Amino acid sequence: MILLLNPNTSVETTSAMVEIAREAAPCLALAGRTAPFGPAMITTPEDLLASAGAVMALAAARPTVGAVRGYIIAAFGDPGLEMLRAKIRRPVVGIGEASFQEAASYGGFGIATTTTALEAAILARVAASGLPGFTGCRFTTGTAQALTARPEALVEALGLAVEACISDGARAVIIGGGPLARAARVLAPRFAVPIVEPVPAAARLMARRLAGDHPGTASGVGPPLDRDAPQP
Q1: Which terminus of the chain is less hemmed in, N or C, by CB atoms within 10 Å?
Q2: What contacts 122, CB < 8 A, 6 or more positions away?
Q3: Mean pLDDT of 32-61
Q4: What is the C-alpha separation between 154 and 131, in angstroms, rounded?
Q5: What domains sit in the chain, N to C, each tagged with a CATH number?
């Protein structure tokens, strides 16, 4: 079983992301888990920090779905990714890192998203990935909360941000955010350049890692645990 950990408190978002991940990687047995505390949507650096604690709490909870083979952290900022990898030896994939890798395979890539307050955090994650060809972030106007409450407006606003990324020279555009997963799906057929959806990208990356294509700690598998220590 792969646990998809939603670092925000929206059960609806968790369900949507699990459904999309299953479509992308039917070979994976997936179950979703929703943060027991923290923000309903991650829109600020403070939210991102709080959600890292929620990820660790979710991973530490006793599973009720059988043996856990890996974890997907389903927030674009990949909160708690390094902390969780340091504690377990199962594969851990973040939807942010997975989308960077997939988008970079097309050449230059940009990010279209809704959270201007997280620009510095997003740029830091891209820089840490070491991947070349990043053309920058483009943001929607208006608040993320207001847009996500109006799905059609969200799609149109993100579409404008995608167009701006293409103008920047992006050959692929990431729709940056777990709660934006459904909007990303709607936008994908509208553009000639690939629209990279982080949740499917993470599901595909997890499937490859479980198949043994990316062994070692560089693939997101943490070091062996102390045999006497409790293992999640």
Answers
A1: N
A2: 76, 77, 96, 111, 113, 137, 176
A3: 95
A4: 28
A5: 2-94+201-213 (3.40.50.1860), 97-197 (3.40.50.1860)
